[in-house]
Automatic annotation (TrEMBL):
Similarity remark: Belongs to the alpha-IPM synthase/homocitrate synthase family. LeuA type 2 subfamily.
Localization of this protein: Mitochondrion
CDD domains given in the database record: DRE_TIM_LeuA (cd07942)
Keywords attached to this entry: Amino-acid biosynthesis, Branched-chain amino acid biosynthesis, Leucine biosynthesis, Metal-binding, Mitochondrion, Transferase
InterPro entries: 2-isopropylmalate_synth_dimer (IPR013709), AIPM/Hcit_synth_CS (IPR002034), Aldolase_TIM (IPR013785), IPM_Synthase (IPR005668), LeuA-like_post-cat (IPR054692), LeuA_allosteric_dom_sf (IPR036230), LeuA_N_DRE-TIM (IPR039371), PYR_CT (IPR000891)
Chief location category: mitochondrion
Lineage: Eukaryota, Fungi, Dikarya, Ascomycota, Pezizomycotina
Originating organism: Morchella conica CCBAS932
A single GO molecular function term of this UniProt record: 2-isopropylmalate synthase activity
Protein name as catalogued: 2-isopropylmalate synthase
Translocase as UniProt keyword: no
Length: 622
């Protein structure tokens, strides 16, 4: 059967609230509401396997640690597990922080109310929560009650609670509060919702210092969130003695708008929100308390709950509910602080660089492309932010290398290496983990293994008598440097010699004698680490002519404690790539008449002029 062509025959649109002078659209949320976690009640009652006592215990401890001050811990009349868990909390010294209220739920049935209150005997702070459905649909279908009969039952039960709690001389050690939920408020005639709550209020007689809680649930979310906000504003305006009332929200997520409903309804005047971590609860769940809190946080409002170790929260919730947190759940999901695609990675990487360069501290103003929240604020490491697959670009790859090896790759090298990564990711058809990208880089640029051409030993000598610098007169001469060293080419050692203005150019000159004509285009270096452990990282870009007559660039990377030696390693890395780009070409490439010296013949003469070289390297390409 296809879906109905005209669903209007079966489903009616939700009637709007007539509130032409509604005020809430002009309001903003400037402080956190009172929170009530119902993870252990609404969240629990909707699990395939409800939590056992120990799981509830763990969850309670975590909720208290997170900062929740009102926690609905059970439906004590439902099961022995719930009753016993409640008693365990009450009876275990120190289990419940002094400022935390335990809340318990009961239907409007006398025996259940008595059992519920019995479960709280001896508690420091207790909220007794009664519910009774008030909508026409529920009264007719579930209870067979008129509005007046519902009102009478609600009042009778409220009076019973009162007599067993705040009016009970034997229960004065406990600070009692009372919550009444006209269940299915969202589908209840608003004037009746107000009338029944007025009657309950009169029966309870709240005070300003201990207000009654009217919890107005969207038991089933049936309308757009603005309608819920209208309903709340209408109720807030209609109820008397507003100062003796705490208006609480309990939005469910049937239409996927629970967050919006909770936020708009706070703008409409609500003081308190009931929900569950990561939106557990009946059907599509209760409103997600994590999202609500972090939405406030990212607007600069302290939510009064702390998700600085969100991974621990997720672990506990998953363990207790046996339901995984969706990878795309707002804030908490594994994938929400990750970027795979190139343009996102590029923007994020640039964002972090701008932040670093500006020296913005941990609590400095946050403005970063694609990331509404600093992942570090919820205990996420930056490593997890950028992940690499075949959709990724150079920025993401460079980020991983920077985090893994502390190397700040020049743009050209980013482009070159990202091609290597992309090819690999394409071949594997999956994400590449940071350690795989690191290994690819180390292999590609021979960080841990010798390249085809590698440095065995070398020395430099300087001739200051030649080459006057143009325009500087005869006294100012640019010293000429001679490189003399031994290199290994595909396992065979060769001694070579060359002259240039600095270490790079003199080695490049020396390489000509073995047929390697290196056209050094770019040179970048930076320090890695600090103090005694500092190393130099050097990147050499060289232009090569392809066999087809085109031009390509190759990169060499050198890392060494000695800056000059780092640059020589990088030159030889680029030279190796050059010869490798001509498959089948044996080394040496052109001239066979160069020296093939046994290493010992030169090694005894070698003395490295480190200071001169470092200076030359620091000055760039010569
Ligand atoms: C919207 C919410 O989430 S409300 C909370 C819902 N949570 C739960 O139901 C979890 C715990 N519940 C239970 O363990 C059981 O349902 C119990 C112990 C409460 C009741 O069990 P039973 O007595 O076997 O009743 P059962 O569950 O079959 O039916 C519910 C009965 O309570 C009545 N009822 C439902 N809600 C209420 C209420 N708020 N106040 C008074 N009676 C109510 C129903 O009309 C029905 O009455 P009926 O038997 O006269 O037709
Ligand atoms: C008991 C009430 C508050 C409830 O869970 C609901 O209406 O969803």
């Amino acid at each position: 059967m296809p879906m109905l062509k005209n669903p209007a025959t079966k489903y009616r649109p939700f009637p709007p609230v007539s509130l032409p002078d509604r005020q809430w659209p002009n309001k903003t949320i400037t402080k956190a509401p009172r929170w009530l976690s119902t993870d252990l009640r609404d969240g629990n009652q909707s699990l395939v396997d409800p939590m056992d006592g120990d799981q509830k215990w763990r969850m309670f401890r975590m909720l208290a640690e997170l900062g929740y001050k009102e926690i609905e811990v059970s439906f004590p009349s439902a099961s022995q597990t719930d009753f016993d868990f409640t008693r365990r909390l009450v009876e275990t010294p120190g289990a419940v922080p002094d400022d935390v209220w335990l809340q318990v739920l009961s239907p409007c049935r006398e025996d259940f109310i008595r059992r519920t209150i019995e479960s709280m005997k001896g508690a420091k702070k207790a909220i007794i929560h009664l519910y009774l459905a008030t909508s026409e649909c529920f009264r007719r279908i579930v209870f067979g009650m008129t509005e007046d009969q519902s009102l009478e039952l609600a009042v009778k039960c409220t009076k019973l609670v009162r007599s067993l709690t705040k009016d009970n001389p034997d229960a004065q050690d406990t600070e009692w509060a009372y919550e009444f939920s006209p269940e299915t408020f969202s589908d209840t005639r608003l004037d009746f919702a107000i009338r029944i709550c007025e009657a309950v209020k009169a029966a309870w007689e709240p005070t300003e210092s201990n207000p009654i809680i009217f919890n107005l649930p969207a038991t089933v979310e049936m309308s757009t969130p603005n309608v819920y906000a209208d309903q709340i504003e209408y109720f807030c305006r209609g109820i008397t003695e507003r100062e003796k009332i705490c208006i609480s929200l309990h939005p469910h997520n049937d239409r996927g708008c629970a967050i919006a409903a909770a936020e708009l309804a706070q703008m409409a005047g609500a003081d308190r929100v009931e929900g569950c971590l990561f939106g557990h609860g009946e059907r599509t769940g209760n409103v997600d308390l994590v999202t609500l809190a972090l939405n406030l946080y990212t607007q600069g409002v302290n939510p009064n709950v702390d998700f600085s170790d969100i991974t621990k929260v997720i672990d506990t919730v998953e363990d207790c509910t046996k339901i995984p947190v969706h990878p795309r759940a707002p804030y908490g999901g594994q994938l929400v602080v990750c970027a795979f695609s190139g343009s996102h990675q590029d923007a994020i990487k640039k964002g972090f660089k701008v932040r670093d360069d500006a020296g913005v501290g941990e609590d400095g103003q946050w403005q970063l492309p694609y990331l509404p929240l600093d992942p570090a604020d919820i205990g996420r490491t930056y490593e997890a932010v950028i992940r690499v697959n075949s959709q990724s670009g150079k920025g993401g790859v460079a980020w991983v290398i920077q985090r893994a090896l502390d190397l700040d790759l020049p743009r050209g090298l980013q482009i070159a290496f990202s091609k290597v990564v992309q090819k690999h990711a394409d071949e594997l058809s999956r994400e590449l983990k940071p350690h795989e990208i690191q290994r690819l880089f180390e292999t590609e640029y021979h960080l841990n293994t010798p390249s085809r051409i590698s440095l065995i030993d070398y020395e430099f000598s300087t001739d200051r008598s030649t080459s006057p610098s143009p325009g500087l007169g005869k006294q100012n001469v640019t010293p000429r440097r001679t490189f003399a060293g031994i290199i290994s080419m595909d396992g065979r050692e060769h001694s070579i010699k060359g002259i240039g203005n600095g270490p790079i150019s003199s080695l490049a000159d020396a390489l000509k004698s073995v047929g390697v004509d290196l056209d050094v285009r770019d040179y970048k270096e930076h320090a890695i680490g600090q103090g005694r452990d500092v190393k130099a990282a050097c990147f050499i870009e060289s232009l090569i002519r392809t066999q087809e007559g085109g031009k390509e660039t190759v990169w060499g990377v050198g890392i060494h404690e000695d800056a000059a030696q780092a640059s020589l390693i990088a030159v030889l890395g680029a030279a190796s790539k050059l010869v490798s780009s001509r498959p089948g070409t044996p080394l040496p490439l052109q001239r066979k008449e160069h020296l093939e010296a046994p290493r010992s013949s030169l090694a005894s003469e070698i003395k490295v002029n480190i200071n001169g070289l470092e200076q030359a390297a620091a000055n760039g390409v010569h």
